[in-house]
Amino acid sequence: MRSTRYIWGAIGLTASISTIVFAVGFAYAANQIWFPKASGDLNIVTATPKKETMIESRSKLQIVALGDSLTAGTGDNTGKGYVGRVREKLEKETGKPVFVLNNLAIPGYKSDQLLQDLTLKKTQDALAQADIILLTIGGNDIFAGGEGLFSGENQTEFNPEAAEKRLGPALLQMDKILKAINQANPKATVLYVGLYHPFLDLDPKKEGSLIVQRWNNRVFELTNQYPQMVIVPTYDLFEQNLIKYLSSADHFHPNGDGYERIADRIVQILK
């Protein structure tokens, strides 16, 4: 009988110890689940501070524009063109003073003429002061004011061959232009306004559209070499609304509404 009591006593003690161990283990596990502690090897990831954009970092914004008649604003009765409209819109959007330091655009300019201007110290000095550089060029190279582009008895049949021949040489010049601008100011944001087809309504086969597309695609490749450069698409604006956005005076340049849409796109990109 005595040995039996010892056996049952040992069993009871073992059971009590097991119960205590189980309770302690359960409490520890529950504590780890409810109140987990970070491992000493865990790297806490902190958010990288957002880098200020060019517009955010400036107390004022300075624009320099150059190129051909589109940057000069030809066709706009108000005289603002897209450059003046960009200044107004950007000032309103940012609440900061925006200045057009220089508009060096000259109507009729072709790429070789602009490239020559970029060698001048006065042009380089102007570009060096810019936060934003606005540029149009290439339309006169390809379309040449309509020279050689039309055939037929009434000169109303679009002839793409003339524009096709001018494409390659102009693109070579364009490459040099972008390099020169980057050398003059590698920090400014450069926006090149892409070409549209001004004679689309006289080109039912849209053969000229393919030429314009090739130009814009190649310029996109060129600007893509520089992180601060971007091409502003305009072709779709005029393809859908040619008569609405094209000047009735010369059937080549944008009117006020056309320049307004171009300015909207530029400001949207800058934002």
Architecture overview:
- With 271 residues, this protein is α/β, with parallel strands linked by helices.
- The chain contains 11 helices and 7 strands.
- It has helices spanning 2-34, 54-57, 69-72, 81-94, 111-117, 121-128, 139-143, 160-184, 207-223, 235-245, 256-270, and strands at 61-67, 98-103, 132-136, 150-151, 157-158, 189-193, 229-232.
- Strands 2-1-3-6-7 form a 5-stranded parallel beta sheet, sandwiched between helices.
- The longest helix is centred in the first third of the chain and has 33 residues, at 2-34.
Tags for this entry?
271 residues; alpha/beta; 5-stranded parallel sheet; two-stranded antiparallel ribbon; 11 helices; 53% helix; 11% strand; globular
Strand order of the largest sheet: 2-1-3-6-7
Major beta-sheet overview? 5 strands, parallel
Low-confidence stretches: 38-42
Query: Share of helix among residues?
Result: 40-55%
Shape category? globular
The beta-strand count equals 7
Number of helical runs? Answer: 11
Order of helices and strands, N to C?
HHEHHEHHEHEEHEHEHH
Beta content comes to: 5-15%
Rounded radius of gyration (Å):
34 Å
Structural class: alpha/beta
In short:
With 271 residues, the chain is an alpha/beta fold.
Provide the fold topology.
Layout: H1 2-34, H2 54-57, E1 61-67, H3 69-72, H4 81-94, E2 98-103, H5 111-117, H6 121-128, E3 132-136, H7 139-143, E4 150-151, E5 157-158, H8 160-184, E6 189-193, H9 207-223, E7 229-232, H10 235-245, H11 256-270
Parallel strand pairs: 1-2, 1-3, 3-6, 6-7
Antiparallel strand pairs: 4-5
Helix pairs in contact: 4-11, 5-8, 8-9, 10-11
